[in-house]
Amino acid sequence: MLHSMKAFGITAIVVLGLGLIAGVITWAVLATGDRGPPAPTPPDLIDLDWWQHCVLYQIYPRSFKDSDGDGIGDLKGITEHLEHFVAAGVDAVWMSPIFESPMVDFGYDISNFYEIHYEYGTMEDFENLLEKAHQLGLKVLLDFVPNHASNESEYFIKSEAREPGYEDFFVWADALPDPDNDTNRLPPSNWISQFAGSAWEWSTKRQQYYLHQFAIEQPDFNFRNPDVQKEMINIMNFWLDKGADGFRVDALPYLMEADPADHGGGYPDDPLSGRAEFQPGQLGYNVPLYTKDLLELYDRVHEWRGFVDSYLQANGGDTRVIFSEGYANISMTMLYYGNEDGDIGAHFPFNFDFISDLSNTSTARDFGYTILKWLTYMPHGAVPNWQTGNHDNNRAPSRFRVNMVDGLTSLNMLLPGVAVTYQGEEIGMRDGFVSWEDTRDVEALRRGDNETYLLYSRDPCRTPYHWDNSTNAGFSTGNETWLPIAEDYVEINLAKQKEDARSHFKVYQALVKLRKEKTLSHGEYSVRALSNRTLFLVRYLRTFDTIVLLFNVSELSDTVVLSRVLHLELPATVVVSSIHSTRVAGDTIEGETLTLAPGEAIVLRAKPVS
User: Fold this and answer.
1) 555 is catalytic
2) Could you say which of 250, 270, 425, 431 is catalytic?
3) Among 49, 340, 433, 605, which one is most buried in terms of CB atoms within 10 A?
């Protein structure tokens, strides 16, 4: 992951250069003094494709809604609550894996890429979900996991048995001799799994090691094998034929490893990091030079983009999309968009900078720098995206502070491009406590123990959704749930927030509604820190109202001078505000200064730029 980089006094005004607005005139810098004749009305703004300014909601199916009382969320539960997304204003949903799996890594270890996992339902349930979602105007994306399969998959069973056509479906290698013990064998290299320990596991049946960059039960496909490449296309084609609208593609940085042909027929050791805090076998002890971010992996992404584009040409309908997942440095991340040779990549790579680069100690300047970094590195014509959480990281209110929920949502919704919401963020859900005895996450179980597991566990951000204050938060009628319900569900739940005069959910709804305005879908932007505590984001488009966000990210109150906010002409009207703010929608702001409480965010509507 990237480490937070501080930038003192970063200020910038950047003109939106997205493909979203191809053909739209970029308006000149505002003149001062005598403005002359009235500004012309902008030309008709080009319509955006459905995904370019959408609100994308991540569903963690196991924790969304249980329809049959077994304590596990399922497809029928999702289908029964699709209206929730319509009420929230969501445009598209993507579901974490729903395919047949032993559930070692809860669906990211797939044993059959063409079947629905029985705990989640049947193929008919999936088809019903798709049909209803599309009737409601919702797009549905699936989680595609190409890096690895389950060791219970037919692919692996056949490969381990050396069946013709499958011998090289996975990454196999002979053991190395132990110079100190003739009867001992050593792994082919010093590569370390993301879940700790060697990334190589011995197969007694095949008498070779296989590579697993994640759990032992998740052997890595060999993407140097053309048959593997073809099978990935077959899988995508199958689900597109079912009616899926595209894919979120998992764990791409680990797709390719060093080619033995380039290293004397073997696998080279990764260099040591030299960091004393890590012991052999711990993630961080090595530098993943030969196991992560190899340039060849982008060829596969280009191939998949070409496939979904050709699928659209052959079958018509709306654009099918590929959104790529990969924690990498900014330069490697941007390559997922495509390259300067004209190879088109994913529609966008997920932007994890709010997760990896920012924390509860970050200043307004840190926020401004983090936002502008993505927009600066992003290729011309590309579409940005923003998210503050996902199923792999602590929830935003737990990483930051609970009084920052509405401000973080405001940033997410008002920045240009795609806004991504992780399940529960619309009601401000926090991490739930999961004891060592209740822990289910393979990463926590493999990397930690009963004292350290919470450093690694992803369970706290995966606890079931809070529908209401009834038993099990309305998630399940069963006696037990697969993970415990967070104890704060009585105070933080959807039903209560629908009734409360002010709530995170109502703030979320108001912001999503605001996103429909041309200023936010097509407008330009300016991001600047007014101080170490307060950030402003201005969205503007000539002849359309100017939208301004003021967000105090600190633990202290802050008084800001409003004349320093670019394009803000007073008086302005409050459109949305944090639930703990003393200001409410409809209030007028006209003073020279404004004092913001810790964590407070307010969104203002002002006159168009002229």
Assistant:
1) no
2) 250
3) 605
- Single out the catalytic residue among 105, 119, 325, 459: 325
- Separation CA 144–CA 151 (nearest Å): 17
Residue 302 near residue 342, CB atoms below 8 Å: no
Residue 44 confidence (pLDDT): 67
With beta carbons less than 8 A apart as the criterion, state whether 606 and 541 touch: no
SS (H, E, C) 173-192: ECCEEECCEEEEEECCCCCE
Residue with tokens 């020279």: 592
User: Which residues of 117-191 form beta strands (DSSP E)?
Assistant: 139-144, 172-173, 176-178, 181-186
pTM of the model: 0.92
User: Could you tell me the CA-to-CA distances from 356 to 84, 88, 330, 399 in Å, in that order?
Assistant: 29, 27, 12, 11
Q: What is the pLDDT of residue 43?
A: 53
Region of 81 please: left (phi>0), alpha (psi -120 to 50) or beta. Answer: alpha
At 86, give phi and psi (nearest 5°).
-65, -45
CA 82 to chain centre: 20
Structural domains of the chain, ranges and CATH numbers in brackets: 11-47+519-606 (2.60.40.1180), 148-222+258-293 (3.90.400.10)
As a whole number of angstroms, the distance between CA 471 and CA 475 comes to: 8
Residue type at 152 in one-letter notation: E
And the tokens for 454? 């919470």
Q: What value, to the nearest 5°, has the Cα angle with vertex 361 and ends 358 and 367?
A: 40
Q: Is 100 a catalytic residue?
A: no
For the chain, counts of helices (H) and of strands (E): 15, 24
- Cα–Cα dist 220/504, whole Å: 41
Q: What is the spatial distance between Cα 406 and Cα 578, in angstroms, rounded to a whole number?
A: 5
Q: What digits encode the pLDDT tens for the residues 553-571? A: 999 999 999 999 999 999 9
Distance of CA 13 to the CA centre of its chain: 26
Q: How many CB atoms lie within 10 A of CB 378?
A: 22
Low-confidence ranges of the chain (pLDDT < 50): 1-41
Residues 31, 395 contacting (CB under 8 angstroms): no
How remote is the C-alpha of 442 from its chain's centroid? 20
Three-state DSSP state, 115: strand
